[in-house]
Amino acid sequence: MAEESKLTRIGLAGLAVMGQNLALNIAEKGFPISVYNRSTIKVDETVERAKKEGDLPVFGFHDPESFVKSIQKPRMIIMLVKAGAPVDQTIKTLSQYMEKGDCIIDGGNEWYENTERREKAMAEIGLLYLGMGVSGGEEGARNGPSMMPGGSIEAYKYIEDIVLKVAAQVPDSGPCVTYIGEGGSGNFVKMVHNGIEYGDMQLISEAYDVLKSVGKLSNEELHQVFSEWNKGELQSFLIEITADIFAIKDDKADGYLVDKVLDKTGMKGTGKWTVQQAADLSIAAPTIAASLDSRFLSGLKDERVEAAKVFKSSGVDDILADQTVDKEKLINDVRQALYAAKICSYAQGMNLIRAKSVEKDWGLKLGELARIWKGGCIIRAIFLDRIKQAYDRNPELANLLVDPEFAKEMVERQSAWRRVVCLAINAGISTPGMSTSLAYFDTYRRERLPANLVQAQRDYFGAHTYERTDMPGSFHTEWFKLAKQINN
Predict the structure, then answer these.
(1) Which residues contact residue 148 at a Cβ distance below 8 angstroms, ignoring those fewer than 6 apart?
(2) What average pLDDT does the structure give for the chain?
(3) Which of 210, 204, 202, 287 is nearest to 239 (CA)?
(4) What domains does the chain contain, in order, with CATH numbers?
(5) Is 82 annotated as a binding residue?
(6) What is the pLDDT of residue 3?
(7) Residue 266 has what pLDDT?
(8) Annotated binding residue at 18?
């Protein structure tokens, strides 16, 4: 227990693995920390870990009152508990012992409007509130995550010296943390980060599927390919861990572990929220939406098993058996297709953040977000440097695709990208992420789309009116009457 004369600098409530690791990280950076959890065994476990990992200044408390009172004023308490009702319950438990000017920081993946609601409620009783997205998983929490705090600027100033040291440190660009903006902006940015992550993971899984199913690459070859890719333009955390996964042998049976993993993907909701927000803001995010749909379809395992039986006799699977490809050429094409499609996922995410920033008047800086995502977080990648430079060149950039550097790269890679998508389609391999990313690129770069026909249809059946290309104004045509005259 901390003595009264030795109050800690900060508190942390919620000691699942992320909470434990973040507490140890904070302590290791020289900030004495109080910890609390409803289940007292987690408190003792954390204190024990602190002793083993370097006698770190972590002080455990079994009751909320002594926990809160062990922290110096103004008190700062980070919560790392499950989003929703558990957050409200934790706030209720802790706030009754807190005083005006104290600060609560939610480090979970919370819906941004909940954060805004809580910030207002806390302000009414004199407490400050931050919603701080934390990315990087267990390893990031322990060794340096990317952190996205939004809400009270006064609260951020209290915690700034701590988070600047605790966040991942990237040479030449600094700590992976910045004050995001007001209200729920920190949670919103973290949500979209996770949406981009959904897209990124889907695209990587499709690259794997094409290489394995069409190219017939073994796990050893896949490990080598992804390891090699991680030395170049695709260098990123997700490519790195993918290379590792292909190398892990099964400890319960012969073969590789990845082949024994059931093909059903879980989710916690941030990807769904991202797609819903994109729809609400009329922002096209097809790569992210395709990744979400793919997770839904993966959950239909039993139905897919039955469907496979239905179509097996139809000869659909024979298409794949007929494919013969040049392995080296395929590997190179898939690398280029993956890179181009990934840019689309990031572009869609950035457009969504900008649209929300405009709607809420948050004033978010997209280049700064790219900077704090360069280290610690799940979507950290070498090309985030390029994204930051693109927004530095033009803060008002309409879309990453039209930045001169990225536009050049998309053009250079489009032939390989088209070859991979065509090959996959002809082989009966679904690549929804790569295909829809290509459609997004092809739609965005065309001056004229067939939307004129859709608008004409809307006017025909619903008198929704249309605009013309050759004169201003809103027009309506009685298409049915004209068509009847022609047909007669």
Answers:
(1) 132, 133, 134, 135, 177, 180, 186, 187, 189, 190, 193, 372
(2) 94
(3) 204
(4) 10-183 (3.40.50.720), 190-444 (1.10.1040.10), 451-487 (1.20.5.320)
(5) yes
(6) 47
(7) 84
(8) yes
Give the residue numbers annotated as catalytic, written as ranges. 190, 197
Q: Which residues of 216-230 are buried (b: 16+ CB within 10 A; e: fewer)?
A: ebebebbbbbbbebb
pLDDT given for residue 317 in this prediction: 65
Q: What is the residue-wise DSSP string for 6-71? A: S-BSEEEE--SHHHHHHHHHHHHTT--EEEE-SSHHHHHHHHHHHHHTT---EEEESSHHHHHHTB
**CA distances for 426 relative to 206, 323, 452, 460, 483, angstroms:** 15, 9, 31, 37, 40
Residue 337: CA count within 13 A, CB half-sphere: 33
Tell me which residues of the chain have a pLDDT lower than 70: 1-5, 314-323
Compute φ and ψ for 446, nearest 5 degrees.
Answer: -90, 130
Would the annotation count 194 as a binding residue?
A: yes
Is 448 annotated to bind ligand? no
Tell me, what's the pLDDT at 325?
Answer: 86
Beta carbons within 8 Å of 191's beta carbon, 6+ residues apart: 109, 111, 112, 133, 270, 273, 274, 277
Residue 249 annotated as part of some ligand binding site: no
16 is in an annotated binding site: yes
What's residue 315's pLDDT? 67
φ, ψ dihedrals at 41, nearest 5°: -60, -35
pLDDT at 320: 61
**253 annotated binding-site participant:** no
135 assigned binding-site residue:
yes
Token readout for 222 is 């896949």
Are the C-beta atoms of 467 and 473 separated by less than 8 Å?
yes
* 3-class secondary-structure state, position 476: coil
List beta partners, residue 134: 147
DSSP code, position 410: H
Q: Name the 3-class secondary structure at 236.
A: strand
What's the CA gap between 404 and 391, in Å, rounded?
11
HSE, side-chain direction, 13 A CA sphere, residue 396: 0
pLDDT tens across 214-248, in order? Answer: 999 999 999 999 999 999 999 999 999 999 999 99
* Centroid of chain to Cα 51: 34
pLDDT of 267:
81
The C-alpha atoms of residue 50 and residue 59 are separated, in whole angstroms, by 9
Q: What is the DSSP letter of 248?
A: P
Spatial distance between the Cα atoms of 131 and 102, rounded to a whole number of angstroms = 15
pLDDT in tens, 437-476: 999 999 999 999 999 999 999 999 999 999 999 999 999 9
How many Å apart are CA 275 and CA 272, to the nearest integer?
Answer: 5
